[in-house]
From TrEMBL:
Highest classification ranks of the organism: Bacteria, Bacillati, Actinomycetota, Rubrobacteria, Rubrobacterales
Residue ranges of domain Histidine kinase/HSP90-like ATPase in the record: 147-297
Highest taxon in the source lineage: Bacteria
GO MF: kinase activity
Signal peptide annotation: none
Organism of provenance: Rubrobacter radiotolerans
Protein name per Swiss-Prot or TrEMBL: Histidine kinase-, DNA gyrase B-, and HSP90-like ATPase
Keyword Kinase included in the entry's annotation: yes
Keywords per UniProt: Kinase, Transferase
Length: 302
């Protein structure tokens, strides 16, 4: 008998039909009980953002460790075509069965619109420059200034390095990036937004910080550990010059009216310009980072 894991996809508002990381919460909650064939029902999904893509990849890595029979149920061809364009089936096609069949999509001619970094799986720091260079190209194409690109890419490089270092599971880490011609967060005024998502399968922030005795009082909960990790200079090693990536990315995204969301273990902290929101969530197998970098239309910029 096939177990079915459903999603929590919004049916109204700006995020209607969008696969986000939060959409996958019921599936992450049900994943530990899977002990046989399982199907993930994505038929309510009309659109996939990078956070949903990386979250889906991490979820499937978790499920394929528990059973050899994992399938996806999709509705229509638009979502399937996007997943193919983002190299999802290149990474998972041999391990996950898809309904309906999408093999014909692989024969399509594709072009690079210059607005996305396909889903990429990485394990070592040597693989990171290619990811960062692609992010820089996307930001340049969206007319981010050189100083903005340098600040963003240098701090994201540290986050990717952390993901590679702590991604001790067999799947390592995933990253995906896309630029949009509309604002999907923040003020929602006309403009553009770049979404960057990075997920690793490591032990998580709480366990990592707990290795350093000086942070013992800040790791009682996952949310407390995430909040502490957002402070400048905090790292598990205590090395000088480490532990600034998350703080700087939070500052950069906040200045642009965007957000930084970090999920690890059963905690999630989202940083906006004037506040931090914490909430308890179903456990995530590692650490997840989502960065939103909006830009208003040229006539609205200072």
């Amino acid at each position: 008998m096939i177990s079915v894991l459903n999603l929590n996809v919004q049916h109204r508002g700006a995020m209607s039909g969008v696969l986000t990381l939060g959409s996958l919460d019921p599936a992450f909650e049900g994943a530990p009980a899977v002990d046989g064939p399982v199907q993930l029902d994505l038929r309510a999904v009309d659109f996939v953002e990078p956070a949903g893509l990386c979250g889906l990849a991490a979820l499937l890595e978790l499920l394929t460790q528990r059973t050899e029979h994992v399938s996806l149920a999709l509705s229509g061809r638009n979502v399937a075509a996007y997943l193919e364009r983002m190299d999802f089936f290149r990474l998972f096609g041999g391990r996950v069965e898809v309904h309906p069949d999408v093999s014909s999509l692989e024969e399509r001619e594709r072009h690079n619109p210059g607005t996305l970094q396909e889903l990429i799986n990485f394990h070592t720091e040597e693989e990171i420059p290619r990811i960062i260079n692609r992010i820089s190209e996307i930001l340049k194409g969206k007319e981010y200034l050189l100083r903005e690109r340098v600040a963003i890419c240098s701090t994201l490089s540290e986050i990717c390095a952390n993901a590679a270092e702590h991604g001790t599971s067999s799947f390592g880490a995933f990253a995906a990036v896309q630029a949009y011609n509309h604002i999907v967060s923040g003020s929602r005024r006309a403009g553009e937004e770049v979404i960057i998502s990075i997920a690793d399968g490591g032990p998580g922030i709480r366990e990592t910080l707990a290795r350093n005795p000086q942070y013992k009082d800040h790791t009682e909960t996952d949310n407390e550990a995430i909040r502490h990790a957002l402070e400048m200079g905090v790292s598990s090693t205590g090395e000088l010059g480490r532990g600034g990536g998350l703080t700087l990315v939070a500052q950069i995204s906040a200045r642009s009216g965007g957000s930084l969301s970090i999920r690890s273990g059963a905690g999630r902290v989202t940083v906006y310009r004037d506040r931090k929101n914490s909430r308890n969530v179903p456990p995530f197998p590692g650490t997840f980072v989502r960065v939103s970098l909006p830009r208003h239309a040229a006539e609205d910029r200072p």
